[in-house]
Write a structure and sequence with these properties.
The chain is an alpha/beta fold. It has 2 domains: 234 residues, Putative sugar-binding, N-terminal domain (Rossmann fold, 3-Layer(aba) Sandwich), CATH 3.40.50; 170 residues, 3-Layer(aba) Sandwich (Molybdenum Cofactor Biosythetic Enzyme, Chain A), CATH 3.40.980.20. The protein has 15 helices and 18 strands. Strand 17 and strand 18 form a beta hairpin. It is globular. It starts with a strand and ends with a helix.
């Protein structure tokens, strides 16, 4: 069995973000949760994305999990490998982007890779090596307050240089403007000077198309999902990929609807507010301090959600809160414990409420999505059509011969303000 693209994503929503853009580019995609023990059905699949939870774990763990995913994808015969991380380059000075990229290159015996986090349609652009979110530098975008990976430096060459002992270079917009051949030559010149990692400017989709053309022969590319949208056209030019009709076709959705939110990003906080404005009394706020006191708070959340779904009424269970409230809970409980309590509670709610008839589930936040998918024991997701840039509907088969569970796993920063409502309106 041979697939065209094998991807390793450092979180669950990042994996669906990439898969979404590959489907939009005309590839049939399956996302697996970790390295599967048994091989899923891949007979009509062009790309496989292995979703890990390696963005903020210990460096050694992230490297080991990523290498295991690489070995599995190599066994499938993937023509090209893709290391997917967030378009805001979420990481710390210790990693995990640099160490994982180094380990993958070493295992592949490759000398160089590109770093292309840009996703222009979602406002993530790179110019002169500096990452922007909309019109703000990364370190002034709200990401400087991220509870796990605060991003306080927008200069990606400088950020990555703190994570790897190898030389980091830059391909500027001026080079990209000269086309793919000039970009390939610049990569070759940098490689000749032992530049292993190359940050790439990208301010619009044409830059991503140039980069895809210049890098399609590399054994490993890295970045956000914007590059993933540009690669399928290059695969078709190579004769690796056929024209596919309806690459994101899913089965009709069924069951009750539920929204679970653990993200504290600005975008998600606005989405929570919009939902509560549209549905007064339709939300229940999870408090990690109350969760720490015992089962009573979780039971209240479950009873609230069950009552709403039995009435077929919109329901949102959320731990999303402003940075000051998050910091206060972390100060009392510790960062790890506060996050674990919320993730465990939302995962447990997902299991209990799916058993009560929820068949359409929207989850906001990468860590929360990982917890929910793990709690539901989901091993593979078929990727459907886009809801908003970076966010598709997906489906998982929880039991043989049963209706599939429809899932939307939303990165915290993605989606329009009305996403929690509109997502269900566009679900087939």
């Amino acid at each position: 069995m041979t697939i065209v693209l094998g991807a390793i994503a450092d979180d669950f929503t990042g994996a669906t973000d990439l898969a979404n853009n590959l489907v939009r580019g005309g590839m049939r995609c399956v996302q697996v949760i970790g390295v599967p023990e048994t091989l899923p059905d891949l007979n009509d699949v062009d790309a496989v994305i292995v979703a890990l939870k390696s963005r903020s774990c210990a460096v050694d763990e992230a490297v080991a999990d990523s290498l295991a995913a690489l070995e599995w994808l190599n066994e499938l015969g993937a023509r090209q490998l893709f290391f997917k991380y967030c378009s805001t380059f979420d990481s710390t000075d210790q990693g995990n982007i640099g160490p994982v990229a180094d380990a993958l290159l070493e295992r592949l015996g490759a000398a160089q890779t590109v770093m292309v986090p840009a996703f222009p349609i979602n406002g993530r652009t790179v110019y002169q090596g500096h990452l922007f979110v909309g019109d703000r530098l990364l370190n002034d975008s709200g990401m400087q307050h991220h509870p796990l990976t605060p991003m306080t430096d927008a200069d990606l060459v400088r950020v990555l240089s703190r994570q790897t002992p190898h030389t980091v270079g830059l391909i500027s917009r001026a080079v990209l403007a000269q086309g793919s051949e000039a970009t390939r030559q610049r990569l070759a010149d940098l490689s000749a000077n032992d530049v292993r990692h190359v940050i790439c400017d990208s301010v619009d989709d044409s830059d991503l198309e140039t980069l895809a053309s210049a890098t399609v022969e590399l054994s490993l590319v890295t970045g956000g999902s914007g590059l993933g949208q540009a690669l399928p056209a290059q695969y078709r030019q190579k004769g690796w990929l056929a024209e596919i009709s309806e690459p994101g076709r899913l089965e009709p959705a069924s069951g009750r609807a539920l929204v679970l939110s653990g993200s504290c990003s600005r975008a998600t906080l606005a989405q929570v507010d919009d939902f509560l404005t549209r549905n007064p009394g339709g939300g229940f706020a999870i408090d990690p301090l109350a969760l720490a006191e015992g089962e009573g708070h979780w039971s209240e959340a479950y009873a609230f959600a069950l009552s709403r779904i039995e009435q077929n009424a919109p329901v949102l269970i959320y731990a999303s809160a402003d940075p000051e409230r998050v910091k206060a809970a972390q100060a009392r409980l510790g960062v790890d414990k506060a996050g674990h309590l919320v993730e465990e509670a939302l995962g447990k709610l997902a299991v209990a409420l799916v058993a009560k008839g929820v068949g359409r589930l929207l989850v906001a936040g990468g860590e929360t999505s990982g917890a929910v998918v793990s709690a539901l024991d989901i091993t593979a997701l078929r990727i459907g059509e886009q809801i908003d840039p970076g966010i598709p509907w997906t489906q998982a088969q929880l039991k043989p011969h049963s209706a599939p569970l429809s899932l939307a796993l939303k990165s915290g920063n993605f989606g329009g303000v009305d996403f929690f409502t509109r997502a269900f309106e566009v679900l087939p």
